[in-house]
Amino acid sequence: MAHVWGMILKRLALGVVTLFVVSILIFMATELLPGDFAQEILGQSATPETVKALREQLGLDQPLLTRYLSWLGDILRGDLGNSLANGNSVSELIGKRLGNTLYLALYAAAIAVPLSLTLGILAALYRNTFFDRFANAAALTSISFPEFFVAYILIFWLAGAGGIFPSMSNFRTDPTLSEFLYRAFLPALTLTLVVTAHMMRMTRAAIINLLASPYIEMARLKGMSPIRVIVKHALPNALAPIINVIALNLAYLITGVVVVEVVFVYPGLGQLMVDSVSARDMPVVQGVALVFAGAYVLLNLTADVLATLSNPRLVHGR
Amino acid sequence: MSTDSKEVLLTMKDLRIEGRADEAWLEIVKGVDLTLHRGEVLGLIGESGAGKSTIGLAAMGFARDGCRISGGEIMFDGIDMRASSESELRSLRGRRIAYVAQSAAASFNPAHKLIDQYSEAPVQHGVMARSEAEGDATDLYRRMQLPNPDEIGFRYPHQVSGGQLQRAMTAMAMACRPDLIIFDEPTTALDVTTQIEVLAAIRNIVEQFNTAAIYITHDLAVVAQMADKIKVLLKGEEVEEADTPTMLSAPKEDYTKSLWAVRSHMREEQPPVRDSTPIVAVRNVTAGYGPIDVLKDVSFDIHQRRTVAVVGESGSGKSTTARVITGLLPPRRGEVLFNGEALPADYRKRSREQLRHAQMIYQMADTALNPKLRLRELIGRPAQMYLGLQGKQLEDRIRNLLDLIELEPDDYIDRLPSELSGGQKQRIGIARALAAEPQFIICDEVTSALDQLVAEGILKLLDKLQTEFDLAYMFITHDLATVRAIADEVVVMKEGMVVEQGPKSEMFQPPHDPYTELLLSSVPEMDPNWLTELLEKRAAAG
Hints:
The complex is a heterodimer of chains A (about 325) and B (about 550).
Chain A: H1 2-32, H2 37-42, H3 48-58, H4 64-76, H5 90-125, H6 130-144, H7 147-159, H8 177-183, H9 185-210, H10 214-221, H11 226-255, H12 258-263, H13 269-278, H14 282-309, H15 312-315
Chain B: E1 8-21, E2 24-37, E3 41-45, H1 52-58, E4 67-76, E5 79-80, H2 86-92, E6 97-100, H3 104-107, H4 114-124, H5 130-143, H6 149-152, H7 162-174, E7 180-184, H8 192-208, E8 212-217, H9 220-226, E9 229-234, E10 237-243, H10 244-249, H11 254-260, E11 280-289, E12 292-302, E13 307-311, H12 318-326, E14 333-338, E15 341-342, H13 352-356, E16 358-361, H14 365-368, H15 375-387, H16 391-404, H17 409-412, H18 422-435, E17 440-444, H19 452-469, E18 472-477, H20 480-486, E19 489-494, E20 497-503, H21 504-507, H22 514-522, H23 530-541
Parallel strand pairs in B: 3-8, 3-9, 6-7, 7-8, 13-18, 13-19, 16-17, 17-18
Antiparallel strand pairs in B: 1-2, 1-4, 4-5, 9-10, 11-12, 11-14, 14-15, 19-20
């Protein structure tokens, strides 16, 4: 077990380095965008003098390096800075939205992960049958359409005239759990349709990959039922790749849901990111990017730890 | 061992099994009959492709993916297996008929503890409760003479050695006290010294529970120890069947006689070289991985046109020695001399010329050849890289090499490895090593994955090439028959140390080092009483 802890510490340290690199990249990328916050906010009619004055006021006239270092210094003190647009603290802005994003991601994951594991196992069990082909075709179809298209189709069917679910999931005050589940159902379902195919197909492939192993033949020769052979004998050895794909998809649920948030008017982090980029609101962009990068680092780390723990050869020495 | 009075347990009549090759079904078992009585052990022998395992599995009503039982009758204790449903067959498998696979290391599920895998069949078949099965497991582990029987079940397969795993697998097969066990080459993957323990344990337990068994192997001496009667198979057909003593003393068919014959290839031992500089000299090498020294102060010489066989059990350091010589593993102390000059310890620091002169042939030709490359590229690449051959010259060289390994160039030059048999693949491995025109070749267990007759062809070829090109061989093997066939000198290794070395003739004559003696006496002999007598002798010696 000691080496697992060692791995966690090493990976966390590497994660901090990753975050640092990401912050530099984001800083430079936003610098490459035409225009800056002062121009954006003052609009077409602004005189050069007012733009200059605003820049000086916000410190945007400073050289890139100076601005980056001062931002970095604040971060190290635990201060994400304030939004240029409204002066609110970035951590507060993110905090509100992050909660929403995580709830939605969790909601979608709670449907998608068990669903895709079950479908994957069943597809492996009934491989090359009608069920297998149908499940594959359906999953591939849903992943092949753009998210917004899936979202609008769902709205058309489930929300439109006489629909059951609301097409807009914005809520003004803190919703109760049941209200949240009800209002966020369509975005969660859209996301489920988007991520299921990947996880299901990996589950199926990872299991089928093992079916030629001698220990699988042994299980069959011990008279074990096909479902037991798959679930007890193949699945435990197929966990590592499956866990990794699940982690990637969970990261996607946190960071990649901008389009779905826009369609359903869901107040999540993705929308905040897009708004801030178009407003050149640097501190917010940086803050959100760090949260996204952090989510990736943590999820991948979790996946690697779980994959290690799923392999007795790595947990129990000789 | 009269079996006439006993009850018949299993019969097969005109059994036919087909395997799928490309788009057509091809018959691989062509009408085999078989009768097995309760408590009787039948040995099935033959080369690979003879259909031994396929017949063994058919006794469980099982055909591997891509195979199907296409004709004939299989009756097990009054049950017509071919008419039984899949779920009826499942209730027989593991409960009344059990299976012991060739490689226990691969056939135990790496994700579960031994005792969980032991308990699975009895619990799932409703024979015993889990706690009962665990107690029973300990009892059987003890009967199989496993160390720490109370504790060993709680280990994962990777924490147990190969010989112990094979015994644990036999114990697992016994879990439901089946009427019949199929042993599919259970000791083929083991060292001779370990093999004895496993053979003795298997024979003992089969007798204790009066279990009938089908014992599949290609090793005649092994089957002679285990079986009451022997059936010889060739390409899916029966050659002959008789009780063991008759079969050993008076085989009828020519094919059986050819199997029985002592290996015909035997190299004349070349006299040892005393005064010239050896091609390769290993000098006081100590090497290892991590904190452990795998090799301890190993020294030996290999001279031009000589074959030095390095023998020992797995883990004795044979392959590690090869890794040190080739520079894959820099030694901690000591050095390797090539024609009297010290080689850089790390292969990355060696010159192309130094690399060219030490080539390697591997045990598993299957994994040592890139499956995506044609023979032209596989053999051509070293000739191109080391000798700078191009165009017509290269083409001629490749054809010449194929000629040397006795494969028709026009036929083979554009084939992929997957289009070759095991023996042919190994020949390509040889041609690839020769392509560099080396002075020295390391042969790492090159025949141990091959059938006896095929292996003999490879040994003859290596011998011929040695004379033709003045090669020096280092021949790593655990098979003493191979040593007898090909070596000039022998180096016996144990636990990373050289325990004995010298000319072959001396090595096979007493007095031996105790370990060499153990190795030599562990090689099974054709005499059916060999195992019994050996065990008695060892017991008497304490």
